[in-house]
Write a structure and sequence with these properties.
Blueprint: H1 15-24, H2 30-43, H3 47-51, H4 55-62, H5 68-86, H6 94-97, H7 105-114, H8 125-134, H9 144-154, H10 160-173, H11 192-201
Helix pairs in contact: 4-5, 8-9, 8-10
């Protein structure tokens, strides 16, 4: 009810731009990514332009994000594969997406969910932490894949593509890592963490 249509905070205009942004966002904030992508997209607006770029051309645009060397190589190689294998189009299947350099399970699920509305759930650090803390996933689930399986087991199929954003935004603005704001939380009455620690966080 609080956020019926959640959206990613990454800024993009087409599937290719979102794919680039998600690759850049690994271990980096969306805010930082949004600062560097406008100039990057202006220079390399589509896969064919990025595919023929050199490392030296791309690196200056993303040098302020985390792991810029690896991400520069991944972006160029990803664009080359899009051109050569997928006719410059971002594929819709998670299997094909994970063939792209720099794209793991989490990134593939973000693209499949956001662009193609598929019922897959991307588990990043926010989703992993928040879902275990509030009780949507078992505390015994120690890996992102285990947490993903817990979540998709119980979240209605039609809500899965939104659940990723709900959990990320909740973890980013309310259920923060160091000091969760239980007073502002709308689900504290059903939260495992609040039931145990409520007195000190209300």
């Amino acid at each position: 009810r609080h956020l019926p249509e959640p959206e990613t905070e990454l800024e993009y205009h087409d599937p290719f731009q979102l794919l680039v942004s998600v690759i850049l966002s690994a271990q980096c904030t969306d805010k930082r990514v949004n600062l560097v992508t406008p100039a990057l997209f202006n220079k390399f607006p589509e896969p064919r332009r990025l595919a023929v770029a050199s490392f030296e051309e791309v690196f200056p645009f993303i040098k302020s994000v985390s792991y810029p060397n690896n991400k520069t190589r991944h972006l160029i190689a990803m664009a080359q594969m899009l051109v050569e294998k997928f006719n410059s189009r971002v594929p819709s299947s998670t299997e094909d997406l994970q063939k792209l350099p720099g794209v793991g399970r989490k990134t593939a699920h973000v693209i499949a969910s956001v662009i193609y509305n598929k019922p897959v759930l991307a588990v990043d650090t926010h989703v992993f932490r928040v879902s275990r803390r509030i009780g949507l996933a078992s505390e015994k689930s120690r890996t992102p894949l285990a947490v993903e399986r817990d979540l998709v087991k119980y979240i209605p199929r039609e809500m899965i593509h939104n659940a990723h954003h709900w959990l990320i935004l909740h973890g980013r603005y309310v259920c923060t890592a160091r000091k969760p704001d239980c007073k502002a939380c709308g689900i504290r009455k059903i939260c495992r963490f609040y039931k145990i620690n409520g007195a000190g966080n209300s």
